[in-house]
Design a protein that fits this description.
Blueprint: H1 2-18, E1 28-31, E2 37-40, E3 55-61, E4 64-70, E5 75-78, E6 99-102, E7 109-117, E8 120-130, H2 138-165, H3 170-194, H4 201-211, H5 217-226, H6 234-257, H7 266-293, H8 300-316
Parallel strand pairs: 1-8
Antiparallel strand pairs: 2-6, 3-4, 3-7, 4-5, 7-8
Helix pairs in contact: 2-3, 2-5, 2-7, 3-4, 3-5, 5-6, 6-7
């Protein structure tokens, strides 16, 4: 009798084990700001019927049911707050009962997937974790910020050199100073917005304020040269054209990156800013060297004007 009882216990244990559905062990999945949808996996390994019409699937969040699927009647029942929740019914016979959600409805927490096949059932628990994602990589982020700041610093250095060495008039100082302040203000605000983590409208606006208003620096660069030269030398014209080209490249890079959560063309933005800063640095050196080479720090334009005035004075005498 004792042996018979043991046999019955063993048979009961085997029967209970065979009635249990087994799942792939996936303890957690992650999502970030770049996700448009979230897939929470639920995969059964030991289905026997492999028939969706003999299956029942139930998804819960923190123990509360928000989606159920009845394979017999092919009916979905959803909670109103999870209207995007769906299963791929053709995949159910293979044991794939994974849940698809829109990112707006994917709430971090513990999700449970319960599957019933005929008289067998089982469930698994998966945690959905939200992780912070940066739009650009930290190195790219730092380089873009540094180059736009450097570009503004170089402009103010050029402004200071021209104002000091070439006797810039007060009205011209105002005319070149106010746009410079505007460009710098946009750059500072852009850097602050761009510094935030994630991929959101604030980050996009920040990058836009970094790149787009930088166009102000191109005509300012030209007008600084007009304060030095009566007639622009070819080298100065080349520098202005190169700076404009750098700006165009940066804008193209911005257009390519702004719509991508993980931008692949960040190097284009950086290349444009690098060209802008290199040209600005060369222009600054050019203005400084020219200033030191001129007698009494008089600009070519002023020297020409004084020569003409002297000639007029001689003719009048």
């Amino acid at each position: 009798m004792e042996a018979l009882r043991v046999c019955w216990v063993l048979l009961g244990t085997l029967a209970a084990g065979s009635a249990q559905l087994l799942f792939e062990n996936i303890p957690s999945v992650t999502m970030d700001a770049c996700n448009t949808t979230v897939l929470i996996p639920c995969k059964v390994n030991n289905l026997i019927e492999n028939n969706a019409t003999k299956m029942f699937v139930k998804w819960k969040l923190q123990g509360k049911v928000f989606l159920s699927y009845d394979g017999v009647d092919n009916i979905f029942v959803r909670n109103r707050t999870f209207e995007s929740a769906s299963l791929n019914v053709p995949d159910l016979p293979s044991g794939n009962a994974s849940l698809l959600l829109s990112k707006h409805e994917a709430i971090p927490g513990n999700y449970s997937c319960e599957v019933v096949e005929a008289s067998r059932e089982g469930q698994t628990l998966i945690e959905l974790i939200y992780v912070s994602a940066t739009w650009f990589r930290p190195v790219e982020h730092g380089v873009i910020t540094a180059f736009i700041i450097l570009g503004n610093i170089l402009y103010w250095a050029q402004f200071g050199v021209v104002a000091k060495m070439y006797d810039m008039t007060f009205s011209k100082k105002i005319g070149l100073g106010i746009p410079g302040i505007i460009a710098t203000g946009f750059a500072v605000i852009g850097c602050i917005l761009f510094a935030a983590d994630g991929y959101a409208s604030g980050n996009q606006a920040g990058l836009g304020l970094i790149i787009l208003p930088a166009v102000i620096l191109v005509p300012l660069f030209y007008f600084l040269f007009t304060s030095v030269f009566e007639k622009q030398p070819l080298f100065a014209i080349i520098l202005v054209v190169l700076k404009a080209l750098g700006y165009v490249i940066a804008v193209v890079g911005f257009a390519l990156c702004v719509s991508a959560c993980r931008p692949k063309q960040s190097s284009v933005v950086i290349a444009g800013l690098v060209i802008i800063d290199i040209v600005a640095a060369i222009g600054l050196i050019y203005i400084i060297v020219l200033g030191f080479n001129l007698k009494d720090h008089q600009p070519p334009r002023k020297a020409v004007e004084e020569s003409l005035n002297d000639a007029k004075g001689v003719m009048l005498e």
